[in-house]
Design brief:
By secondary structure, the chain is an alpha/beta fold. It contains 10 helices and 13 strands.
């Protein structure tokens, strides 16, 4: 996309005060509030002081206001934070911008830029399901460095492109107790349904060899997030070295792991079930890739105790039992994600032949 000369001087200011020209829609939509006053509009307290569309404001005037009142995503699941309080009537004004043909602005790319920015300001105020694409920062307890993940806008068929509360809780648990949870055998850990990559990235930083897997449509964003964090860590004391591959639970025989006859001592999953078909699919994949002849073999699950998924969870417990696994540890804790607070269950399953005592499957929630 070509940005017209009229808006080429718009810039985002880094903490060091160095400005970088904007060259894309995403850079405009993610502008921080701390930008030069010569670029952004002064603080406005009422919509009456916003640029009137009847006066045919310039591209720069409109983007100045739209970027000034952008909201930034809080760390973890803190929700959107106001950089500056928007004036009363701001959403109504933005809605008029979206509905305007902006005929007086000659450059088509400029018009698209304004409409996209205005739509983003509305979406930021309409809850997570309407929120635009975002880059968000996660702080994992005790890790010593934060993780930055990109999430495209959420749709019903892109749940794997969203970071869920289970992932953050499991990442926290690993960071606090990974030496007690995962054997330091040097054997690779398999993560099924890696999504945006939070858990796998944390394990990689902790020094475990991890294979992150997901569907083909998830991999591009997953790889991008891994590369982004590799770059961020390159000048620190931390490093990140993980592998990423496609693994479709319905067609795992086509995966590289299957063709190599890979077996894994530890398999991890977070929030893996949201369909009645998933328990059987999951059991099939676990039974294929778990290293059953290893006494340390284990499957570690973290999932929310959503009320409407009780039957699916019970089915999962039974399907895991059917493939020779039994739960040996469980723990419940409260957590949250973009959709509110929830109780989450963590459990560890091992082949029955190697354990003396286990938890009754029927007692699991």
């Amino acid at each position: 996309m070509t940005v017209s000369p009229e808006i080429s001087e718009l810039s985002s200011a880094s903490n060091s005060g160095v400005s970088t020209p904007l060259t894309s829609i995403s850079s405009v939509l993610s502008l921080p509030a701390q930008i030069p006053s010569r670029v952004f509009s002064p603080l406005i307290t009422h919509a009456i002081d916003l640029p009137s569309l009847r006066s045919k404001p310039s591209t720069q005037e409109l983007l100045a206001v739209l970027c000034t009142y952008a909201r930034s995503q809080g760390k973890n699941f803190g929700g959107y934070e106001e950089n500056l309080p928007a004036p009363a009537g701001f959403v109504d004004w933005v809605t008029r911008v979206v509905g305007s043909g902006l005929e007086w602005i000659e450059d088509e790319d400029d018009r698209e830029l304004i409409w996209d920015s205005a739509s983003a300001r509305i979406a930021e105020r309409c809850g997570r399901t309407a929120a635009p694409s975002m880059e968000r920062e996660f702080e994992v307890e005790g890790l010593g460095t934060s993780i930055v993940l990109y999430e495209p806008s959420l749709t019903a068929d892109s749940l794997g492109l969203k970071t869920w509360g289970s992932s953050l809780l499991l990442a926290n648990r690993f960071c606090e107790r990974h030496r007690d949870l995962i054997p330091r055998s040097g054997r690779r850990v398999l993560e099924l349904g890696s999504g945006t990559g939070l858990v796998g990235i944390v394990l990689g930083i902790l020094g475990y060899p991890v294979l992150l897997t997901d569907l083909s449509e998830i991999l591009h964003n997953l790889k991008s997030n891994v590369d982004k964090n590799k770059d961020r860590l390159s000048e620190s004391k931390y490093s990140l070295d993980v592998n990423i591959e496609e693994l479709n639970w319905l067609d795992f025989q086509s995966s590289g792991a299957y063709r190599r006859h890979d077996k894994f001592e530890t398999i991890i999953l977070s929030d893996p079930i949201y369909s009645s078909e998933h328990p059987q699919m999951l059991a099939n994949v676990v039974s294929q890739f778990l290293e059953y002849d290893n006494p340390q073999a284990q499957v570690m699950l973290q999932l929310p105790l959503r009320a409407k998924f009780v039957d699916i969870r019970v089915d999962l417990w039974h399907k895991l039992r059917d493939i020779g696994l039994s739960p040996i540890r469980q723990d419940q804790e409260r957590g949250r994600d973009d959709f509110g607070e929830e109780t989450f269950l963590w459990s560890v399953w091992r082949p029955r032949e190697y354990i003396d005592m286990h938890i009754d499957v029927d007692s699991l929630p």
